[in-house]
């Protein structure tokens, strides 16, 4: 036994699914999910495989691919990374010219194989497969209503709600049935749906989740991020519009609407943290936006120092921007070990601290005797910030000034990001000065909301482009159900 823990569970990694410990030593928000689709390519499954590799940062719990040859489905899902789930033997059996694929981190539903996507169903019009990025806020209420009407759910994933709504629609035409179903949903979502001969892509009316369309020769591609197109040699065409549904079949491609576009509210955390820096969202490059955040931080909260360093990987762009604006040299003061695999927090404090050092190291010769500005993208609970600040001090830093390239994260997300309850968010329960003391920093500053918005910029006025900043200001772009709020420890007094 290890500190009272079942040793067999310890060494087999069983704690990964037990909830008591996190798989990551870093106190970071968990990615949502990633979707990838191919229509009209003889190597659809292979393209999906490489697309999932490009989107692996969006989810590491499970992966799946479903293909169609025009008559039948072939599909495979498994727990783990894409490279672990898809062997050469598995890939040989995934035949067809159309395919949808998914990598998952469970923001809704348990982490188990039954919830791995794409989810595959049979209904009166034939086979149906669905892959989703995001979260359906009113799924619990819809599920209860459907269960009272006789529906039997096979998973705990909110995605299954859509399949039941499609099956219960009065429309026999699949496109009309999907529209009917989507109009009953509230939330942030990007759906890829395939039948034996059709592929359907749809984005929520606020455009909360990133969703793009591309081409590879005569084939069409869909993905959560543009970086996946670069990986497979595809070309970006455009972002899918809020409330838009795109249908691909033998008649070609057509764009329709299932809902009027609301005020666009792209998740600001995509720019701050989730998306890969080589991706573009609304034609804005993520790396460039993060550099502007760093520059803005420097203008809002300059501090005299010797070295600027970023917490790898998502904060490096902002750190470069801060350094360029101030003239303070940027250095690799923190190094991430990329070969530790999917580890988990160990039970004792001593081993917990050792685990952090397995994942991240301070470069003593860079920070020793120096005043250091440490740039990070967010502070969630504050535990990791404290460990990193102390790590820099142990390596000889004389001062550690923390600058965060986002406003204080004070509210739960209901649109596909796995956030702790409000009471666990350090910024919701403490002032900036109190946080500074808790993380042992010499100074602390969060980027202003206006500074964030200006840094990201705007290019798509046609859809009243904006950002979802609810995690900072509690201004949610949709209604939030009482059950969803209660699950996150929010007071159920106002449905907005």
Helix content: 25-40%
How would you classify the helix and strand content by structural class?
alpha+beta
Count of strand segments: 23
Radius of gyration: 23 Å
Oligomer: single chain
List low-pLDDT spans.
Answer: 1-25, 342-347, 459-464, 492-496
Question: How much strand content do the residues show?
Answer: 15-25%
If helices are DSSP runs of H or I spanning 4 or more residues, what is the number of helices?
19
Strand order of the largest sheet: 3-2-4-1-10-9-11
In angstroms, what separates the terminal alpha carbons? 49 Å
Coarse morphology? elongated
Average per-residue pLDDT, rounded, comes to 86
Largest sheet: 7 strands, antiparallel
Structural overview:
The protein is built from 19 helices and 23 strands. The chain has a seven-stranded antiparallel β-sheet with strand order 3-2-4-1-10-9-11. Strands 5-6-7-8-12-13 form a six-stranded antiparallel β-sheet, covered by helices on one side. Helix 14 links the parallel strand 20 and strand 21 (about 400-405). It is elongated, with a radius of gyration of 23 Å. The protein starts with 6 loop residues before the first helix and ends in a 9-residue tail after the last helix. The model is unreliable at about 1-25, about 340-345, about 460-465 and about 490-495 (pLDDT under 50).
């Amino acid at each position: 036994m290890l500190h009272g823990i079942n040793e067999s569970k310890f060494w087999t990694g069983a704690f990964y699914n037990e909830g008591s410990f996190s798989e990551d030593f870093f106190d970071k928000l968990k990615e949502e999910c990633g979707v990838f689709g191919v229509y009209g390519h003889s190597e659809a499954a292979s393209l999906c495989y490489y697309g999932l590799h490009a989107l692996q940062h969006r989810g590491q719990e499970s992966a799946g691919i479903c293909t169609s040859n025009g008559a039948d489905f072939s599909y495979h899902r498994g727990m783990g990374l894409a490279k672990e789930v898809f062997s050469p033997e598995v890939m040989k059996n995934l035949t067809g010219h159309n395919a949808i694929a998914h990598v998952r981190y469970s923001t809704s539903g348990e982490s188990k194989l039954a919830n791995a996507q794409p989810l595959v169903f049979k209904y009166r019009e034939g086979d149906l497969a669905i892959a989703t990025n995001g979260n359906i806020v009113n799924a619990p209420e819809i599920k209860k209503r459907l269960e009272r009407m006789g529906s039997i759910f096979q998973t705990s994933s909110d995605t299954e709600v859509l399949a039941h709504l499609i099956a219960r629609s009065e429309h026999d035409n699949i496109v009309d049935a999907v529209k009917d179903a989507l109009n009953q949903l509230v939330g942030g979502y990007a759906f890829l749906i395939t039948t034996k001969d059709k592929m359907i892509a749809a984005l929520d009316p606020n455009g909360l989740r990133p969703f793009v369309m591309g081409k590879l020769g005569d084939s069409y591609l869909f993905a959560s991020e543009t970086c996946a197109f670069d990986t497979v040699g595809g070309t970006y065409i455009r972002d899918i519009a809020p409330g838009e549904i795109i249908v691909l079949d033998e008649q070609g491609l057509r764009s329709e609407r299932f809902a009027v576009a609301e005020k666009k509210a792209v998740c600001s955390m995509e720019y701050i943290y989730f998306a890969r820096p080589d991706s573009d969202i609304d034609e804005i490059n993520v790396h460039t936006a993060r550099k502007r955040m760093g520059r803005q931080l420097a203008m809002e909260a300059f501090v005299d120092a010797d070295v600027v360093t970023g917490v790898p990987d998502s904060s490096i762009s902002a750190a470069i921007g801060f350094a360029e604006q101030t003239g303070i040299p940027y250095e690799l003061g923190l190094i991430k070990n990329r070969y530790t695999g999917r580890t988990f927090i160990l039970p004792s404090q001593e081993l917990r601290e050792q685990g952090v050092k397995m994942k991240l190291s301070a470069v003593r010769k860079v920070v020793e005797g120096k005043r250091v500005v440490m740039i990070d993208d967010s502070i969630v609970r504050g535990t990791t910030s404290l460990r990193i600040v102390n790590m820099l001090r142990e390596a000889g830093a004389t001062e550690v000034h923390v600058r965060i390239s986002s406003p204080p994260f004070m509210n739960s997300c209901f649109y596909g990001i796995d956030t702790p309850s409000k009471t666990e968010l350090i910024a919701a329960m403490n002032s900036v000065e109190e946080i500074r003391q808790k993380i042992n920093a010499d100074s602390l500053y969060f980027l202003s909301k206006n500074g964030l918005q200006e840094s990201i910029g705007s290019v798509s006025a046609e859809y009243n482009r904006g950002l979802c900043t609810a995690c900072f200001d509690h201004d949610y772009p949709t209604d939030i159900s009482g059950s969803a709020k209660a699950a996150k420890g929010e007071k159920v007094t106002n449905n907005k």
